[in-house]
Design brief:
The protein contains eight helices and four strands; from the N terminus they run βαβαββαααααα. It is α+β, with helices and mostly antiparallel strands. It folds into two domains: about 80 residues, 3-Layer(aba) Sandwich (Glutaredoxin); about 110 residues, Up-down Bundle (Glutathione S-transferase Yfyf (Class Pi), Chain A, domain 2). The protein binds glutathione.
Amino acid sequence: MLKIWGRTTSSNVQKVLWCCAELGLEYERVDLGGPFGGNQDPEYLELNPNGLVPTVKDGELIMWESNTICRYLCSTRNGDRLYPKDPSARTHVERWMDWQLSSLGPPMGTLLFGLIRTRPEQRDHAAIEAARRKALTAWTIADDALEGHAYLAGEELSLAEITLGTLVYRWHAFPIERPVLKNLKNWFERLRERPAFKKHIEIPIT
Ligand SMILES: N[C@@H](CCC(=O)N[C@@H](CS)C(=O)NCC(=O)O)C(=O)O
C-alpha cells in the first residue's frame, strides 16, 4: 500500500491525491506540514531533506516532488491515459507540468501568501498586483491553448490538468480582478464535474 505524508490543504499533496483517485489507488495518508508540523523532524528529513510535503513511499522507494510522484504513479499503475507513453503525446503533457512549476507556480504562490496567509494590514499590495499580472499572462497562454480543445494536452484529462487543477481553482477563488478567460473558465467547469476534483481540490484554501 502506498503511504503519503502531507496535509490535504497543500496544493502539491492535492495533485498526488487527485492522481491516486483517477487511478483508483488506495493509500495510507499521514497529516504533516502546515498546522500539523512534523516536517522539520529528523525522521521526516531523512525521508525528504527539503522538509516539504508530499513524500510518498512505495515499498522501499521513497519519493518527493509532486510532479515526479504523479509521473511515477501513472508509469507503474496503468496510467497511460493520464501520462501517455508515446513521446510526442507525452511531451504535450510534460510541458504543462514544467510550465506549472516554472511559470505559473511562483506568481500563484505569491497570491496565496499575500492574500490568504497575510493579514490585510500587512499585505504588500504592489507584490500582489505584480503577481496577479504575471499569473494572468500565464493563464492567458493556457486560455489560448484551450481554444477548440477540451483539455490542455488533447481531448482527454491528463497530468497536465492534475498538476494545474488546484491553481485554476485558486485563481477563480482569490479576491482579485480577473478578466474573463472563456476557455479557461469552461475548462475549470469541466474539471469541477469530476468527483475527485470536488473531493481533493475544491476545499477551503488555507
Ligand atoms: N516542488 C515541491 C514543492 C513542495 C512544497 O512546496 N510543499 C509545501 C506545501 S504546498 C510545503 O511542504 N510547505 C510546508 C508546510 O506545508 O509546512 C513539490 O512539488 O512537491
